[in-house]
Amino acid sequence: MPEVAPTRRRRDPEARRREILHAAAELIVENGAATLTHRAVAARAGVPLGSTTQYFTSIDDLRESALQQLADEIDRELEEVHEYIADIKTAPERAVASLSEFLADPRAVHAEIALIMAGTTDPRMRELALRWSDSFADMLAEHLGRTRAVAIAVYLDGATIHAGLHDHPLQAAEITAALRALAMMPVADA
């Protein structure tokens, strides 16, 4: 039998870029955006150190791309809540179930907190960090008015921080009671 030369594995630059980006996003979720280094990302992705600078021009570029990926994930979760928004005043249970699922997911909570922290310390990241809260408030405003919508979005930002700091997130009944109170509060723009 003739000897067969081993086949070389084809390089897939886009797959390597995705691996690096995924590793960076996970490190941000675990440790925060400010601690990201090329060395840590390369080690997590299992790629040579030079690969991180080959695909991303700087650590800032890598950090911003990873935060963008995390924001995109959160946007997809927000889309799931969108269909329940119209009923949040009269029947918030479906929205609360979805929000409770989010708050019980440590990775999702830490990703949102990482975005919030990046937005508070890096003006370039502020718009990205505000995207969830502002989009959620815009969706709610159509049904509840701007003041109530902002109050609920701010409450949920706080509930997210609470979930990140405590062993257990707020209970669904607590969230439901708060949302009902905020959705019914007297305001001039309602």
TrEMBL record:
Residues 14-74 form the HTH tetR-type domain. Keywords: DNA-binding. This is TetR family transcriptional regulator. GO terms for molecular function: DNA-binding transcription factor activity; transcription cis-regulatory region binding. It holds the Pfam family TetR_N. The keyword Zinc does not apply. PROSITE patterns: HTH_TETR_2 (PS50977). It comes from Leucobacter insecticola. Residues 37-56 bind DNA. PANTHER family: HTH-TYPE TRANSCRIPTIONAL REGULATOR RUTR, TRANSCRIPTIONAL REGULATORY PROTEIN (PROBABLY DEOR-FAMILY)-RELATED. It comes from the Bacteria. Coiled coil: none annotated.
